[in-house]
Design brief:
By secondary structure, this protein is α+β, with helices and mostly antiparallel strands. The chain has ten helices and 25 strands. It folds into three domains: 133 residues; 158 residues, no CATH class; 154 residues, no CATH class. Helix 8 packs across helix 10. InterPro entries: Ntox44.
Length: 528
């Protein structure tokens, strides 16, 4: 977009990063004449300036400076005002306006309004922070706590700020005794949104100064237009559900100005680069965040059993997923380790690719896992377990204890049946999917990490290579006739034997193995 007549915007200027640089308004429109923006090399906003031009020498400016941490999070916002810019002896002031409060994500802001500098027409500067500090120390031996300056966000699962409350509680004297019987939070603001983020007219409450963050937790920019928000990768008009700039990750057949894939109820877009699923399945979520240098989407994971897990905002505790498979000796020696990619299937995105970037490893230990590098195994794997289901049913039927006439025969059948099943699915057996040395690899392909990669997709879930063996074990075990309890006990006993022999570390099956086995059992039971 380069202009917007409906908002009296005469010209919109973009920089080489695709970021909004200037907005020029038509003469006569109330408010600033020009908006100017400055950014750091990563595209984070550093400054916003509003120019008011009332004559050749009657020019004044006001705006904000943003101080950020190395990750781009805003730590503080400074407000400045400057008058008579065209004159040598201009007036200006600078004060600390906001400090941002964080836990694992932004919690709210602390309004400071602390004057740092003031200069009048004579050029005399006053109110330096050093002078203020000395004065405060000389005059006081205590600190004053001002309530009501902190504003905490109350957000929904999409990150939309629905309300803010202050740190000031309001006493309620219901018994008319002159003392507070209980306290209520002081609500500073509240907003209701249409699905794509436009605040409903007449459904907004503000006590004092408006809160700067709203839909998707993004900063609002009402100086441009009502309903306008900004983020790292977009300028967004919530009234028409369209972005001003094109999507940096365009999707074939979808307009580059489209947002939320048309579904803002379950999708959010905190950075303005692509959509994030707010609903999760199991313990994994996928957060598709643009890496501008290689145009790929890092995968994030979250543990929904953790005490710190927040179901309303699962992204708070999400962490980037890293590769971990590599030569043990290399890792112990501190050398670069990983999978070269030469052993991957021919259709694997990482087969002999990007090694010029990652050294000799396509999937280096400690390297980020990207969505575009994952094989989707859904069709192949679902067909595989289904194709051999009848074989396991037939094998299980041979050792069905219902064929026996007495307790001794039942015990013999049970032992033989267990032995037979183990010889089908355990280490290097015909249906051991992680094996690379089976004699039947031409019929039943290997699902080892060096073949399909450490991570892949199965039925819309992020799946580790060894999960396939556990899922198939649960599926075929049910077809064989085993109960869930028997299958879990058998797998755990086998793992304990490996632990005792020093092949693995730990005490039986991990929770991830148990979950994968149950997934296979559920897949079989649902089909039946």
């Amino acid at each position: 977009m380069v202009r917007d007549s409906s908002e009296q915007i005469e010209e919109i200027v973009w920089n080489v990063q695709g970021k909004l640089q200037e907005v020029h308004f038509e003469a006569g429109k109330p408010g600033p004449s020009v908006l100017q923006y400055e950014y750091d090399p990563m595209g984070n906003r550093l400054a916003k300036k509003k120019l008011y031009v009332d004559g050749p020498v009657d020019i004044r400016s006001e705006g904000q400076y943003y101080v950020r941490d190395p990750q781009g999070n805003v730590l503080a916002v400074y407000q400045y005002n400057e008058e008579n810019i065209a004159l040598v002896d201009d007036k200006d002031s600078l004060h600390l306006d906001e400090l941002h409060l964080y836990g694992s994500a932004r919690l709210g802001i602390l309004k400071k309004a602390l004057a740092l500098r003031y200069r009048d027409e004579s050029g005399t500067a006053n109110w330096s922070i050093r002078t203020l500090a000395k004065t405060a120390l000389a005059q006081s031996s205590y600190q004053q706590l001002e309530l009501g300056r902190r504003r905490y966000e109350l957000s929904n699962h999409l990150g939309n700020v629905l309300a803010t409350v202050s740190d000031k509680s309001l006493g309620q004297d219901s018994s008319q005794t002159g003392q507070a019987d209980y306290y209520l939070a002081q609500v500073s603001s509240a907003s209701l949104y249409y699905p794509f983020g436009w605040e409903m007219p007449g459904r907004k409450f503000v006590s004092g100064e408006e809160y700067r963050f709203g839909f998707n937790g993004q900063e609002e920019d009402p100086d441009i237009a009502e309903g306008h928000t900004t983020a790292l990768y977009w300028e967004y008009d919530s009234r028409i559900a369209r972005r001003w700039n094109v999507d940096p990750r365009p999707v074939t057949s979808i307009s580059p100005y489209n947002t939320f894939q048309g579904n803002p109820i379950i999708m959010s877009d905190a950075l303005g680069d692509t959509s994030i699923y707010s609903s999760i399945s199991g313990k994994l979520i996928e957060r598709r965040e643009m890496n501008m240098s290689i145009l790929q989407s890092p995968v994030y994971v979250v543990n929904d059993q953790s005490k710190n897990y927040d179901s309303d905002n699962p992204f708070k505790t999400a962490e980037p997923l890293k590769y971990s498979i590599g030569n043990k000796k290399d890792k112990e020696a501190g050398r670069l380790a990983g999978i070269t990619g030469n052993s991957f299937r021919k259709n694997h995105p990482l087969r002999a690719q990007r090694q010029e970037v990652t050294g000799r490893f396509a999937a280096p230990v400690g390297g980020q896992v990207y969505q575009e590098d994952l094989l989707d195994m859904s069709v192949e794997f679902n067909s595989l377990v289904l194709d051999y289901e009848s074989l396991f049913r037939a094998e299980g039927d041979k050792y069905d204890v219902r064929h026996t006439q007495n307790l001794l025969a039942e015990m013999i059948f049970t032992v033989r049946g267990d032995w037979n099943f183990a010889n089908l699915v355990t280490d290097n057996a015909p249906f051991d999917l992680k094996s690379t040395s089976r004699s039947n690899l031409d019929k039943i392909p290997s699902y080892a990490a060096i073949v399909i990669g450490e991570w892949s997709m199965l039925n819309g879930r992020l799946t580790r290579y060894d999960d396939y063996g556990n899922i198939s074990y649960g599926y075929w075990g049910r077809a064989y006739g085993y109960t869930t309890k028997t299958l879990l006990r058998g797998s755990n006993d086998n793992q304990i034997k490996k632990d005792e022999s020093g092949q693995t570390d730990g005490n039986g099956d991990e929770q991830r193995d148990i979950d994968a086995i149950k997934m296979g059992i559920k897949q079989y039971d649902n089909k039946r």
